[in-house]
Queue: 4 jobs
Job 1
Amino acid sequence: MIVVTGATGNTGGELLRLLSATGVRVRALSRRPHEGPPLPGVEWMIADLGRADDLASSFAGAERLFLVTGNVDNLVRAQKNAIAAARDAGVRHVVKVSALGASDHSKSVIGLWHFIVETELKRSGLDWTILRPHVFMQNVLAQRDAIRSEHVVRSPAGDAAVPMIDTRDIAAVAAAALTEPGHAGKSYTLTGPAPIGWHEVAEILSDVLGVPIRYVPESEDDAWHRLHREGLPAWLIGAQLALAEYQRQGGGTGIVTDTVERVTGRAPRSFRDFALDHAAAFAPGSGPTT
Ligand SMILES: NC(=O)c1ccc[n+]([C@@H]2O[C@H](COP(=O)([O-])OP(=O)(O)OC[C@H]3O[C@@H](n4cnc5c(N)ncnc54)[C@H](OP(=O)(O)O)[C@@H]3O)[C@@H](O)[C@H]2O)c1
């Protein structure tokens, strides 16, 4: 049995669908399991990874764990709790979503936090696989209201181009790592098929939606105010602006890997594939996001 954390989120949600389709038994953890979709072979269970004392039953009977949380301020504590509870319950293998560039000198606090959890996992005695994905294409969905109503996308990343990845491809790699042999002790850097800049994002959206979408490069101040209005806490805005600055300065974030294709046997989705699959969400004239 495989425990999937972050099961209401981008990667966890897609992983559930993939595992359910293969007939593997899955336990999906969430703080709000009633919001999770019913799927064959998937048992939803309430769990807050921030509460170490309540986790024994969450992992009982599991052999493998998919570990992800959103960018929450207790990421390190929550993920360390999950690793400890999984080990106590007899889990053998943990597949963790980390981030590109996770290190003890990361430009963003999120990279540092992932590095701390990676280190804990490697010391745990459990088998591990670490997924280090690049920027998610799904981040663009956060701008769908502006795309629909103002016909613009915004970013503080200037002219930087990075090989964004579709979270469905991260989930496909995770599914392979959890169900096939040969992935223990591996760290995988995961990217999309090619670097893509924000001008190109706007061009592809224009083409797919049949409406001109414009890229508006943002100053750090403008990005700060937009992200604040979107409800992001100050520490997370600071982390995102640090990454954007690194990308603007040409930091080593343009490198493409072939890992998705090597592990899954299928090329990663392009941004055009992503835009076509989400055209309804971006289409001008459709209602605002609630
Ligand atoms: N966005 C990017 O460009 C990017 C790039 C590289 C790496 N990453 C990493 O990817 C991860 C995010 O992945 P994602 O987009 O799949 O996540 P997501 O959609 O943000 O969802 C994460 C899930 O985490 C769960 N969660 C948060 N706190 C929890 C807690 N205390 N106990 C139990 N569950 C908790 C939430 O589930 P419930 O609310 O249902 O409990 C939520 O559904 C982050 O670690 C981020 O650093 C992101």
Note: The chain has a mean pLDDT of 95.
Job 2
Amino acid sequence: MDVKEAIDKRRAFRSLEKTEIDEKLIRELAKSASLSPSCFNKQPWRFVFVKGRDKLEELYSSLSKGNEWAYYSSMIIAVISEKKLDCIVKSREYYLFDTGMASAFIILRATEIGLVAHPIAGFDEDKAKKILKIPDDMQLIAMIIVGKKSSKLNSELSDYQKKSEKERPERLSFEKFGSIDEF
Ligand SMILES: Cc1cc2nc3c(=O)[nH]c(=O)nc-3n(C[C@H](O)[C@H](O)[C@H](O)COP(=O)(O)O)c2cc1C
């Protein structure tokens, strides 16, 4: 699969089924993240790869309403960083930008491997940080829900969620987000 195909194939699917996750896969995804660019090569990202059954079950309890589809995941990747781990150029803070890029590398590599890797913001940060023993001063930015796409539609999804399993949510036209030479 080339990069274009991975970009095209990646979707935030919500109909998942369990699959085997081993340490080789985790290290492969982590390697992809570590090859991502970062300001002065600061590599501000930190990831907790949660795959143990008990820990996963505990982490599910931190998910927001509407994210129950993630109970069928086989791994959750906690995406973590902290402002002071990366460059601050004048007032521009780069930790979220760099950690987001590394996360995108993980998501695309997971797609290439044939997995769903669906980022979410819908969780209770304090609760999840306690469960994963993330230090207080670090930010749990997102979770990446990893699993195998189920051939069956998850009947517990909302109508909106069911619709977006079938067709990709609409994107802005180039004219709305891009311009050439000037803003
Ligand atoms: C930062 C971020 C937070 C998101 N939070 C959630 C979430 O809490 N629950 C959910 O079901 N999807 C979540 N999504 C997935 C988006 O809804 C999805 O990417 C978007 O609708 C576009 O669909 P597509 O990724 O399949 O193209 C999130 C995506 C991102 C990047």
Note: The pocket of flavin mononucleotide is lined by residues 11-12, 14, 67, 119-122, 142, 168-169 (CB under 6 Å).
Job 3
Amino acid sequence: MDYSDLTNNLIKGNTRAAARLITIVENDINAAEEIVSSIYKHTGKAYILGITGAPGTGKSTFISTLTKNFVDKGKKVGIICVDPTSPLTGGALLGDRIRMKQHFSLDNVFIRSMANRGQLGGLARATEDAIKILDAYGSDIVIVETVGVGQSEVDIFKSAMTVVVLLVPGLGDDIQAIKAGIMEITDVFVVNKMDLHGADKKVSDIIQMLEFRNSYKYNSSNLKDKYAKIHQWTPEITKVNSKTGENFEVLLELINKHKLFLEESGVISSYLKNRITSETIQILKHKLTKKLEDLLNYDEEMGKYINQAVQKSLDPYSMANLIIKMLGLEKQN
Ligand SMILES: Nc1nc2c(ncn2[C@@H]2O[C@H](COP(=O)(O)OP(=O)(O)O)[C@@H](O)[C@H]2O)c(=O)[nH]1
Ligand SMILES: [Mg+2]
């Protein structure tokens, strides 16, 4: 297939081309490869924001208000809602989209939901490609909304420059969930629904959690390199009301402060390297797995080895080493 008409239109800011291309990269990893390689040099302008929080914390309302703030400043915003638990036609997601769309002129806001339908190469891969499409499309800001915690969340957030986590007043379940999942990669904590009782208590709970984490990390030298980012950036905390927009000026300042930190400290360059590494690993996992499955299932010589293993004259580790050799992947030294 030739996607050059679509990608040319995308780069000119054509909304339908963006929508079509996202559908294509979601469903066809070979097409994704072609598309991404032709648009890649047009990416890198968008600021990528990751937003997460448990269901009901108000993510959609929050993103809607945040987007309105950006649009009012003349920004073009792309929104990707990633919900691994929800089928594409899920009522809630659809409701979100309709609700969000009511707020904006469609020229400045592009909203797209992605659900896990077993994308080849994984949801994180497909999301990363969708981010690139919205970047090349001309979005100043790409917002990625995901639900809750988990490995796919962490993978997805490797693309985000600033990660914002929403919590709400009330019991500490959400704090526990963050500790278990994405605390390490959170840049800004937001207590949403500040109009409800207990918002200040939640802010102090977060401060306490961060203080505990710092004293714990201080002794942990091996985490130092891995999480260099958070060693220098102390996560910011604020509270907002997403329904009224109260305190969003403060939030925007904090996001901007983090952006400036990334640029001025030079952390942005390690972010860029990490993002490319992580993305390449996703792609390689998919490609190599496919190649190896084909080899093990269909290759004649492999068939002989498998028989030997059945006869116990070869074990699975030795077989794996043989394959690494066959593929020329053994260390060159
Ligand atoms: N009181 C109050 N309710 C809010 C606020 N933000 C969102 N909500 C409500 O919380 C509920 C869940 O919001 P939604 O955006 O769908 O949450 P999501 O599941 O995280 O996307 C809805 O009824 C919202 O109207 C807020 O700041 N204050
Ligand atoms: Mg939602």
Note: Residues 267-298 form the longest helix (32 residues).
Job 4
Amino acid sequence: MNCHAIVIGGGPGGLLAAHTLASRNWQVTVLERATYPSAAVAGPQPRRGAPQSHCLHMLMGAGAEAFDAIVPDWRPSILRHGALPFDALQDAAMRLPGGWLPRSASGITMYACSRTLLENVLHEELLRYPRAQVVQASPVVGLDIRDNHVAGVHTASGTTLSAELVVDVSGTASRLPHWLADQTGQSDAEPWPETVVASPWNYASRWFRIAGGRQPDWQCLTVAPEGNGGCAAMMLRAEEDFWNVVLLGRKGQVMPQNDVEFRAFTAPLADGRLSAALEGARPVTPIHHYGRTTNRLRHVEDLLGWPSGLAALGDSVLTLDPYFGLGMTNAARGAVLLAEHLDAQGSGPFDGPAYQQDLARLNAAPWRLVTGRNTDGTPVHRKSAQLAQLYAAAPSSPDIARAILEVQHLLRSEDSLMKGVAA
Ligand SMILES: Cc1cc2nc3c(=O)[nH]c(=O)nc-3n(C[C@H](O)[C@H](O)[C@H](O)COP(=O)(O)OP(=O)(O)OC[C@H]3O[C@@H](n4cnc5c(N)ncnc54)[C@H](O)[C@@H]3O)c2cc1C
């Protein structure tokens, strides 16, 4: 086969989509507007183009399974680069409204590593395919569409690159709606249909380094907001003894601006465990704030005239409040679906509308879990009393704790959890 695909965006979603194509013998060009930090420098290095890379990125269970389907060697590769595997329950300190969860084996493996490390590994593994390349500092500025078929992209350097398939994975600020409108002469057209659910959170994150013997006895700590004055926190280990702490305050709440305020914010949280962990920690970056964490689902599938030869996935279609840490998982699941469509569709122009229809179905579950809303914005009818009962029981029941975790990792549905409780 001599087909060329262009992937717009070299974040986790773009690199996974590129793997999917390269492993099916496509020639693949990833166009990334920014440059990656050097893989030779130790420790997490946030990068331009992905401001969220200043913040810890947890890869949830369903995401790891999707990575397995796309990049078979990613687990040994990230371990070689310094990631540490850990059990999501046994090696984690998790505080739900009812108390701390039991430290028992869940069978869900997570990794202590930065987003940068994950990206570096996906990038490195991709370049093993002789027909794959990643072009950095190469922003895409438009699409070349002919007879309702995408024939390529225009880059900022004034070049037009041709391709049989273009995949937009350029993140939450994707310009795809504008590019499509420009092409069809509908610049003043209605905006894309979307459902938006505000996030209640402001985020502040900071990287620390903890000296050798002073590591906590967990790899990850999460504290739910209930019982904590509405504030929450997470802390995740990364490679090279770096740790990232992310603090969550309600919208309108002033988030910490300096070291003293950061430590004061952590003091009442986690029964002192977070403060204790930070006692021997040295801050190594400024504090980064994130306020634009709105949940947004673009109903791409409802657009009339979506061209063939075009697909969009990841944050470009569905952006989730990072509280649940499901963004990379969502992008990876979209890339697995892309693989299924490539295999099923065979030769001929890629049927973009069919892909987007199926992606919309796939996106519904993480959307419902994170927002508590259906995809049309109406509230999901949750059995709140049963759910509260379940959460209250979790600290004294490893089975319930594991079941709750499986829901959060998108490994089982919330409905199945509720049925389990009712039984
Ligand atoms: C504060 C915060 C914390 C988060 N924590 C987690 C977490 O714990 N776990 C998790 O799974 N997810 C987390 N996420 C979400 C996660 O970052 C994304 O969902 C995930 O990276 C998948 O996104 P993506 O690849 O679709 O887009 P991105 O990661 O945003 O990548 C898009 C890429 O496209 C490039 N690009 C943009 N425009 C162009 C253009 N015109 N031409 C070429 N390139 C372009 C950008 O430079 C970027 O590299 C978090 C997000 C935030 C904001």
Note: The chain has a mean pLDDT of 93.
